[in-house]
Design brief:
- With about 350 residues, this protein is of the alpha+beta class.
- The protein is built from ten helices and 13 strands.
- The strands form three sheets. The protein has a seven-stranded mixed beta sheet, sandwiched between helices.
- The N and C termini lie far apart (about 65 Å).
- The C terminus is likely disordered.
- The structure holds adenosine-5'-diphosphate (ADP) and magnesium ion (MG).
Length: about 350
């Protein structure tokens, strides 16, 4: 059913949850918010465009969930506690059913994290969703990219490569996987229905690692969320911190669905270069190894130690036998076979 702009906004407003620190939410010219004294406001924005950032098969609820999830992942990577968001929505048609589904996904995730939707903008145009999210973090406890030090261990939460494998599956199903550079080969027939459903879920419904980010305050030296692929994102930490790293490829965590891939090179490609996992990659000194593990497991978060920071600027990878493996960190599909 078609609605006018103000009907759309009224529909959004009716479902937006309250928070004690929202003095005035949706409905006026601007929201009035009461920041927490003594803490920094961590502020980020991410835009998702139809076709580019979600495949045609993504449901409205998936789109709502993911548009918020990518922002909450940025807050998680700063060690921030989510508080508020605004929503800029561009829609080709004012479609009530689409909006309701979209809000189902967005508000379900917002509710999990006590986040209030406090305003936004609604326009007509190609489908595009832009969310600005804000959270709190004490200034000395923020998890920045520039704090990694030689000797730190490198960790990653959860598992890597699932969302990229899910995307390859979805693209193959939609006929969009042309095998051109930038596309990864989809998992083969060895990946059964349950594993396929898991991989698609990891693509469409990423779970931002807010609890892990909070647990790592005061423990991690540096942190980033894995949105563009491990090599690219770890590369950002190394560049910001002016350090190098050794990556243990055989220590990269794999889900059962990814571990079931018959081709180990394909598996590593997904783990190293696949985007959209929204796990946290962080560094911490070895003396805090047990403290890191305890803090994360107290919040039900698995994490794997995948390498170490060293002086210099190079990112080198090795296998379990200590043999060097050549990498091209910036590429999407530039993984090379082992040398030697
Ligand atoms: P203005 O013309 O002053 O920008 P709008 O008509 O765009 O006002 O918005 C009216 C109110 O509805 C504002 O409080 C705005 O923040 C809110 N709003 C508009 N679109 C959205 C949206 N997509 N999500 C949440 N709030 C929205
Ligand atoms: Mg407006």
């Amino acid at each position: 059913m078609a609605l006018g702009e103000f009907d759309l906004i009224a529909r959004i407003r009716a479902r937006a949850a309250a928070r004690a620190d929202v003095v005035l939410g949706i409905g006026d010219d601007a929201a009035l918010l009461a920041p927490r004294p003594g803490e920094c406001l961590a502020l980020c924005v991410d835009t998702l465009n139809a076709g580019v950032h979600f495949p045609p098969s993504a449901t409205p609820a998936d789109i709502g969930w993911k548009a918020l999830a990518v922002n909450l992942s940025d807050l998680a990577a700063m060690g921030a506690e989510p508080a508020w968001c605004t929503l800029s929505l561009s829609l080709p048609q004012p479609d009530r059913d689409w909006l309701d589904g979209f809000l189902d996904g967005l508000l379900a995730l917002a509710g999990e994290h006590g986040l209030a939707l406090v305003g936004g903008d609604t326009t007509r145009g190609p489908l595009s969703v832009s969310i600005t999210a804000a959270g709190f973090v004490p200034p000395t406890q923020a998890l920045r990219r520039d704090g990694a030090r030689a000797g730190d261990e490198i960790w990653v939460t959860g598992t890597l490569g699932d969302a990229a494998a899910g995307l390859a599956l979805v693209q193959a199903e939609e006929g969009g996987n042309t095998g051109a550079p930038g596309f990864l080969e989809p998992p083969g027939a060895e990946t059964g229905p349950a594993h396929r459903a898991f991989l698609r879920g990891r693509l469409h419904r990423p779970a931002p690692r807010i609890a892990a980010g909070l647990a790592l305050r005061g423990l991690a030296h540096a942190c980033i969320d894995v949105s563009d692929g491990l090599l690219a994102d770890l590369g950002h930490v190394l560049a910001a911190s002016a350090v190098g790293a050794v990556l243990e490829l055989d220590a990269l965590p794999a889900s059962p669905a990814l571990a079931a891939l018959r081709d180990p090179v394909a598996r590593r490609r997904f783990q190293c270069s696949g985007g959209d996992d929204y796990e946290l990659c962080f560094t911490a000194p070895p003396a805090r190894h047990e403290a890191v593990r305890a803090a994360l497991s107290a919040r039900g978060v698995q994490a794997a130690c995948i390498g170490s920071i060293r002086a210099g600027s190079s990112l080198v990878a090795q296998d379990a036998q200590g043999r060097a493996v050549r990498l091209e960190p910036d590429g999407f599909d530039h993984f090379r076979d082992a040398i030697g």
